[in-house]
C-alpha cells in the first residue's frame, strides 16, 4: 500500500521546469529517502507532496486521493512536513512551539482539550524534550532545536512525516541522534517517514526505500542493497566510487575516489590502535 504517490508530476518555478512528468510511490509504514545532487529537485518534490507547491501538471495522491482536492485541515491531520532550517519567533518556548502542532484540531467549536494536552506531552517525551519545555527555542543547541521541531510535527499526530534535510548543520553525533529518533518512530509507531538526505551512506543505513532523483525524473528506486551501485553514483552524482558493505549494519557503503592520503602506501608502517 502506498502512503503518497506522484502521477505524471511536472513542477516548475516560473519557466524553469524542475521535475518533468515524474511518477513515484512512497510505501506506507516505511522510511523513504530522496537522494540526488544539489539542485536536482529533491526538496521541490518533497514540498509538492506536502501541497506546498502547486504542480504545473499531474497530481499527488495522499492515501489514494488527490491531495489538491482535500481540505487543508484534513491534509494536516494526515501529513506533516518539517522544512529545511525552520525558524521560530524570538522568545517562543518549546512548549508553545510544540502546541502549534495541534492547530489542525482546533476550531471555534473545539478548543484545547485533554487529548491535545496528551499529544503535546507525548511528543515532548518521545523526543526527550520534556525538560526543555519552558526554554526558548532560540536558546537551544542545534540538535535540541531540531528535536523541538520534530516534537511539533509529532504533536500533529499524522501517519506520514516529511522532512527536508533534517540533519543539516548538525555534527555527526547529532545527525545520528536525529536519525535514530526517526527510525524509532517508524519502528515503534509505524509512521511513514520521508526524508531528503545528502549523506548517501546514512541514507543507505536508515532507509527501507531510496528514490534517486536525476535530470528531472526518477533515475532509480528500491531497497538500498538493490539499487546503490557505482553506476548509479556515477550517473546521479558524477562521482566514481566503489560500493562496499558496511561492516556493522551490512548496508551499502559508498567509498568515493578522490585525492587524499593513501595509508597503504604513504603510511604503511603506522599502526592504528582501536580505543
TrEMBL record:
<protein>
    <submittedName>
        <fullName>Cobalamin/Fe(3+)-siderophore ABC transporter ATP-binding protein</fullName>
    </submittedName>
</protein>
<dbReference type="InterPro" id="IPR051535">
    <property type="entry name" value="Siderophore_ABC-ATPase"/>
</dbReference>
<keyword id="KW-0472">Membrane</keyword>
<keyword id="KW-0406">Ion transport</keyword>
<dbReference type="InterPro" id="IPR027417">
    <property type="entry name" value="P-loop_NTPase"/>
</dbReference>
<dbReference type="GO" id="GO:0006826">
    <property type="term" value="P:iron ion transport"/>
</dbReference>
<dbReference type="InterPro" id="IPR003593">
    <property type="entry name" value="AAA+_ATPase"/>
</dbReference>
<dbReference type="GO" id="GO:0005886">
    <property type="term" value="C:plasma membrane"/>
</dbReference>
<dbReference type="GO" id="GO:0005524">
    <property type="term" value="F:ATP binding"/>
</dbReference>
<keyword id="KW-0067">ATP-binding</keyword>
<dbReference type="GO" id="GO:0016887">
    <property type="term" value="F:ATP hydrolysis activity"/>
</dbReference>
<dbReference type="Pfam" id="PF00005">
    <property type="entry name" value="ABC_tran"/>
</dbReference>
<keyword id="KW-0408">Iron</keyword>
<keyword id="KW-1003">Cell membrane</keyword>
<feature type="domain" description="ABC transporter">
    <location>
        <begin position="4"/>
        <end position="240"/>
    </location>
</feature>
<keyword id="KW-0547">Nucleotide-binding</keyword>
<dbReference type="InterPro" id="IPR003439">
    <property type="entry name" value="ABC_transporter-like_ATP-bd"/>
</dbReference>
<dbReference type="InterPro" id="IPR017871">
    <property type="entry name" value="ABC_transporter-like_CS"/>
</dbReference>
<keyword id="KW-0410">Iron transport</keyword>
<keyword id="KW-0813">Transport</keyword>
